[in-house]
Design goal:
Elements: H1 9-24, H2 29-44, E1 48-54, H3 66-71, E2 76-78, H4 85-95, H5 98-103, H6 110-117, E3 123-126, H7 127-130, H8 133-137, H9 140-146, E4 154-159, E5 168-174, H10 184-197, H11 218-228, H12 233-240, H13 244-258, H14 263-274
Helix pairs in contact: 1-2, 1-10, 11-12, 11-13, 12-13
C-alpha cells in the first residue's frame, strides 16, 4: 500500500474518538447518526453524507433497494453543502416518488450492483474502485439521478447489524460535480470507522428502525428502570409512589413498544443490546484530523 493510502496514527485516533462519542449517544439513533455524519464529512472531505439502516438479508443475489435506504424512516443526513436548499427539497421529494425509487434499484446500475455483489460483510469502496471514469461519465444514473441535484462522485460503506437479524448500516458520501474523486486514504479511514462501529449496531448503537428508549415518556423510563433493576411491579409502585395497577399498565405498554411478551424477554432484549464488545486495540483517542 502506498504511503498516501495508509491510515495514519492521527486518523486512528480521530476514528477512535468519533466512535466513542457515537457510543455515548447510542440510545438516540438520530443523535449518534447525526454526530457520525458530521465526523465522516470531516474525515473524508465529502460535501454531503447519508447514513441509514437497510434490511437484513438480501445478499449479492437479492440486494436491497437503494430507495429503501433513502426512503426508510431513520435516514440521517449531514452536509449543508447542497448546491441550493431547493436541490435538497427536490431530491427528497423525487426519491419518495415511484420514478425516484425505480432509479435507485441497486441492480440497475453498475457501481451499486458491483458494490453489493462483492463478497464480505464489511466493505468500503470509492466510485472509481467500482466503475471507470469513462463508464461513469456516460452513466444514466450519474447524469440523471445525481448530477441534477448537485451530486456526482461517491463513496459507499456497508456493515451488517450486530445482533442476528438486525438491519445493516450503510454510509453514502458524495462530492459535487467538478469535485475530485475520493482518495483511497479517505475510503480506508471510513472503512476503519465502519469496522469500529459495526459490532455495536443494534446494541450500543440503537437503530432508528428498532424499538428503543428514545421517545419513551419519563414515567415509562422510570418503570423500565425498575424492571431492569429486578423489582416487582409492587415494589416499582412503592418506589415511584403510584398505584400498582398503573405500573402494570405501563409494563404492558413497554412490552408492546419493545415487541416482547414477558419480563424475561424484555431483559434479554436489553442484555443483548447493552453488552458491548471489547473495543479494538489501538491508539488512545485524540483530536480528529481530516484526510489529506
Amino acid at each position: 500500500m502506498s504511503r498516501s493510502a495508509r491510515v495514519t496514527a492521527a486518523h486512528q485516533r480521530a476514528v477512535a474518538r468519533l466512535a466513542g462519542e457515537c457510543l455515548d449517544l447510542g440510545e438516540d439513533a438520530a443523535a449518534w447518526q447525526g454526530h457520525l455524519l458530521g465526523g465522516l464529512l470531516g474525515l473524508s472531505g465529502a460535501g454531503l453524507g447519508f447514513v441509514n439502516a437497510v434490511p437484513a438479508g438480501g445478499g449479492p443475489a437479492d440486494p436491497p433497494a437503494l430507495a429503501r435506504f433513502f426512503a426508510t424512516p431513520g435516514l440521517a443526513e449531514a452536509g449543508g453543502r447542497w448546491r441550493a436548499e431547493a436541490d435538497r427539497d427536490r431530491w427528497h421529494e423525487w426519491v419518495a416518488r415511484p420514478a425516484g425509487r425505480a432509479a435507485f434499484r441497486f441492480t440497475d446500475h453498475a457501481p451499486m450492483a458491483r458494490f453489493f455483489a462483492t463478497p464480505g460483510p464489511i466493505l468500503t469502496r470509492t466510485r472509481q474502485e467500482l466503475v471507470t471514469d469513462r463508464e461513469w461519465s456516460r452513466s444514466a444514473f450519474a447524469n440523471d439521478s445525481l448530477r441534477p441535484f448537485g451530486m456526482y462522485e461517491g463513496l459507499l460503506s456497508r456493515a451488517p447489524g450486530g445482533p442476528a437479524g438486525a438491519p445493516g448500516v450503510v454510509f453514502a458520501l458524495t462530492h459535487s460535480p467538478g469535485g475530485r474523486p475520493f482518495r483511497v486514504r479517505a475510503a480506508r479511514v471510513v472503512d476503519h470507522l465502519q469496522r469500529a462501529l459495526a459490532p455495536h449496531y443494534g446494541r450500543g448503537l440503537w437503530l432508528g428502525c428498532q424499538p428503543n428508549l428514545h421517545g419513551l415518556s419519563p414515567r415509562l423510563r422510570q418503570v423500565l428502570d425498575c424492571l431492569l433493576d429486578g423489582e416487582s411491579e409492587k415494589h416499582a409502585a412503592l418506589r415511584l409512589g403510584i398505584h400498582s395497577t398503573t405500573v402494570h399498565d405501563h409494563v404492558k405498554r413497554l412490552y408492546r413498544h419493545f415487541g416482547v411478551g414477558a419480563r424475561a424477554e424484555l431483559l434479554a432484549y436489553f442484555l443483548r443490546r447493552h453488552r458491548r464488545p471489547d473495543p479494538p486495540a489501538g491508539p488512545s483517542p485524540g483530536p480528529g484530523r481530516r484526510v489529506r
